[in-house]
Amino acid sequence: MNLYNRISVFRAERGLSRRQLAEAVGVNNQTIGYLERGDYKPSLELAMKIARHFGVPIEMLFSFERFEPIAMSFKQPGEDE
Amino acid sequence: MNMRRRSILSIMDDALRWTGMPARVAAQMSGDSSFDREHPPLRWIPIWPIAFSSALFIFCLTWPPMLDGISPATRIGVMVSFMCSAVAMVPGIYMNGPLGKPSLEDDEREAALRKDSYLFCLWLLVVLNGVGQPLLLFMSHWQSWQIAHSVLVAGSTFNLNVTLLACLPTLYASWRLRQLPKE
User: Fold this and answer.
1) How far does the CA of residue B177 sit from the closest CA of chain A (Å)?
2) Which residue on chain B is closest to A30 by alpha carbon?
3) Residues B162/B56, Cβ–Cβ less than 8 Å
4) B86 and B150 assigned to the same domain
5) Residue B109's domain spans which residues?
6) Does the ipTM surpass 0.90?
7) What is the total count of domains within chain B?
8) Among the partner residues B33, B107, B178, nearest to A31 by beta-carbon distance
9) B5: how many CB neighbours lie within 10 A of its CB?
10) Above 50 in pLDDT, residue A81?
11) Is the domain of B84 the same as that of B144?
12) Does residue B135 carry a pLDDT above 90?
């Protein structure tokens, strides 16, 4: 089962480099790169550390379903009609 | 005498500084991340010693009859030198590959990769040895190998095992990792 994440979106929004995030959660900066690309599924501990670092619930960062694009989140209901 | 000893010590100090190791150790102890040692994937280099050891093993197994005139001591001496040259490449490959850094510094992804690499290597070696050893026993009986031939085959088998044990985990880990784009 695929595990999607929005780490790169949150990292870009906070202006963090991979290295800074990696040091904050105690992993190698390459691990953040592999996580963002979906090549590695994090442990629950690492996922919770990342969520805590961004100050958001874990389900905002990780999901089994594809995240909808950010632009779609800002669309008003009924805008397409 | 004292001057002579001091000069020898200072020459040794200069030689050590020339290697760059003291500067590297000082940089690592200072926590400067720009001095972190890179351990890039090595996708092709570990194939060389494995191919060389495999070729050596096959050569020893199918020893050409025209070489029977060579004395056993010469045969073994030449083969040992070939084996040493294959095994000599192995530490450099391991140390510079993705598994070369101390395991205590691994994070969870690297620890998982290290475990997977060694388990794959162990599985492959068990299968190869489990199938190969009875086959070798059968062949030695069937073809009535001489002692010198048996020693050569046993030596090249040991060499192949050592090379596989040292290079396969690096090879596996290197192919599992896809290169990350620069940030």
Assistant:
1) 9
2) B180
3) no
4) yes
5) 41-176
6) no
7) 2
8) B107
9) 9
10) no
11) yes
12) yes
Lowest pLDDT segment from A14-18, B79-83, B96-100, B168-172:
B79-83
Question: Taking CB atoms and an 8 Å limit, are B183 and A31 in contact across chains?
Answer: no
Nearest CA-CA distance, residue A27 and chain B, Å = 5
Same domain membership, residue B82 and residue B57: yes
Using CA coordinates, name the residue in chain B closest to A12: B183
The radius of gyration computed from the CA coordinates of chain B, to the nearest angstrom, equals: 22
Cβ contact B148:B75 at 8 Å: yes
Inside any domain, residue B52: yes
Point out the residue among B108, B109, B183 whose CB comes nearest to the CB of A17. B183
CA distance A60 to A5: 8
**Closest chain A residue to B110, measured at CA:** A31
Q: Does residue B139 share a domain with residue B50?
A: yes
| CB atoms closer than 10 angstroms to residue A5 | 20
The owner of tokens 């391991």 is B94
B70-98: per-residue pLDDT in tens? 787 887 788 788 878 877 888 888 888 88
Work out the angle at residue A37's Cα, subtended by the Cα atoms of residues A28 and B94, and round it to the nearest 5 degrees: 45
Q: Residue B38: its chain A contacts at CB < 8 A?
A: none
Which domains does chain A carry?
A: 4-55 (1.10.260.40)
pLDDT reported for residue B25: 72
Same-domain status, B1 and B57: no
The rounded mean pLDDT for chain A is: 86
From B178's Cα to the closest Cα of chain A, the distance in A is 9
